[in-house]
Amino acid sequence: MIEISLYSKHNIQEGFTFLSRKDEKLAKLIISNPNFSLSKRCTGFKALLKTIISQQLSTSAANSIWIRITKNNLTSRLNILKADQQLLLSLGLSRQKCTYVKELAKQDINYRDLNLSSSEEVINRLTKIKGIGKWTAEIYCLFSLGHANVFPSGDLALQESIKVLFNFQVRPTEKEVVKISENWDPWKSLAAHLLWDHYRNIKKKD
Question: What is the arithmetic mean of pLDDT over 148-156?
């Protein structure tokens, strides 16, 4: 299965046209975001390492740890394998995340093949690794691979954004978000990016 890529202005415009017709709420977000663009993230070990480090942390905390990881030249499989736990702990990783990054480094993943795989195949492969749950695998598909039809329904920011945009009284559950996002197929990822932008705007107002 060949995935539609978001890293194309033509595809983004096609996706916006589709979403505008399907959902008037998203149509308003699209109109209010005329300069929307996406920057391609790196793929492979480094990208997954960074995503694991960012799990359940604020953006600022994750960025601080990542800067220290980078300064200590620990963004490769080999160097993570060589690093002892005390060093990783001193850079801000929890003991649990020390285990997770080590487990990732032990994996012999063919990232070129992974990059050509469907979202379902990527998620199935990555979630077999200790420390990588569905959210992490979906984020990799969405940001690193640019797959157009992935929606991390367990993401709290997306749930909160949907709550505000659709005037819900309470934050929707993951199961409810899965159902809502079906309306945006096959451009779920584009809807997710719009909703993340909306969430950032909500936080600025707060």
Answer: 95
Average pLDDT, the chain: 93
Q: Spell 174-206 as b/e; 16+ CB within 10 A means b.
A: eeebeebbeebeebbbbbbbbbeebbeeeeeee
d(CA 106, CA 131): 12
- pLDDT one-digit tens code per residue, 78-103: 999 999 999 999 999 999 999 999 99
- 87 contact partners, CB below 8 Å, separation of at least 6: 72
Domains along the chain with CATH numbers: 9-39+149-205 (1.10.1670.40), 45-144 (1.10.340.30)
Indicate the pTM of the whole model. 0.91
H helix runs in the chain, sequence order: 9-22, 24-31, 45-54, 59-71, 77-82, 85-90, 95-106, 111-115, 119-126, 134-139, 156-165, 174-181, 188-205
> What is d(CA 204, CA 56) in angstroms, rounded to the nearest whole number?
20
Distance CA 111, CA 43 (A): 8
Q: What single letter denotes the amino acid at residue 165?
A: L
